[in-house]
Design goal:
The protein contains 10 helices and 2 strands, in the order ββαααααααααα. By secondary structure, the chain is mostly helical. The chain has one domain: Orthogonal Bundle (Tetracycline Repressor, domain 2), CATH 1.10.357. The protein has a two-stranded antiparallel ribbon with strand order 1-2. Helix 1 crosses helix 4. The radius of gyration is 19 Å and the shape is elongated.
Length: about 220
């Protein structure tokens, strides 16, 4: 389901944190001073213990609040993880936009966007920790998750233009393509060190094995 102007909660979210989707994608709520303290405390815990081992009790203690207070703001630990994750992803998107120039076709644009997002995200310690946590990464790939709604929002206009121009295969659904691109971005981010800084090798693999299978004309090459 495409993002709409109203509020929508993903299946992985609890009952407290209300995330809305609109023209600018996912919009985080104002959590106030106390909520910000909880988030800061959670960051410190995640950095010290890792996401999986951190408990709500750890977060409450680090933030200097009670456990019930944490639950007034967030439905659980994963909501805090998501709140932080969205903030970091916004930083990454800004950096990616600054690096990627508009390309002539879908294949070039998508290849460069994926390469840039992997390289930029690999320098963000929180995002690296996020994708290395198996439970967190798995929840983010659920079609109903806010991450997939945000990914769809960011890719939708590019994919619709590619559909209209006949650049991508006619049988592809936008939701399926978004899921495919997202899963490959996570996989590449988790293994980026294996490329040893060889950006051209990364670019070749992204184009040949991630992007080209989506094209209506497999012979389509970069100009």
């Amino acid at each position: 389901m495409a993002p709409s102007g109203g509020n929508r909660k993903g299946a992985a979210w609890g009952k407290t944190l209300d995330i809305s989707t609109g023209d600018k994608g996912v919009v985080l709520p104002d959590i106030g001073v106390t909520g910000a303290r909880i988030v800061d405390g959670a960051r410190r815990c995640f950095e010290r213990y890792g996401i999986q081992k951190t408990t709500i009790e750890d977060i409450a203690k680090a933030a200097g609040v009670s456990r019930p207070t944490v639950y007034k703001f967030f439905g659980g630990k994963m909501e805090i993880v998501d709140y932080i994750g969205f903030g970091e992803l916004d930083k990454i998107q800004e950096a990616v936009r600054a690096r990627v120039k508009r390309q002539a076709n879908f294949a070039d644009m998508t290849t460069e966007a994926i390469v840039a997002s992997v390289l930029v995200a690999s320098e963000n310690p929180y995002i690296r920790r996020f994708v290395e946590d198996l439970e967190t990464a798995a929840n983010a790939q659920l079609p109903s998750s806010p991450y997939q709604l945000q990914a769809r929002h960011r890719w939708e206009s590019i994919l619709k233009r590619a559909q209209a121009s006949g650049e991508i295969a006619a049988d592809l659904e936008i939701g399926d393509v978004v899921g495919w691109l997202s899963r490959n971005q996570v996989m590449l981010l988790r293994t980026v060190e294996q490329f040893g800084g060889q950006e051209d090798r990364l670019r070749y693999l992204v184009r040949r094995f991630v992007v080209e299978p989506l094209l209506a004309n497999r012979a389509m090459t970069s100009s």
